[in-house]
Amino acid sequence: MFEMAADYAKYNSEFEVIGGYLSPVSDSYRKAGLASAEHRLAMTKLATEQSSKWLDVDPWEASQKEYQPTAVVLDHFEYEVNVVQEGIATTDGGRKPVRIVLLAGADLIQTMSTPGVWSQDDLDHILGKYGVFIVERTGTDIDDALATLTPWRHNIWVIPQLIQNDVSSTKIRLFLRREMSYIEEHKLYEDDGASSSILGKREGSPGETS
Question: Most exposed among 49, 100, 143, 190, judged by the fewest C-beta atoms under 10 Å?
Answer without folding.
Answer: 143
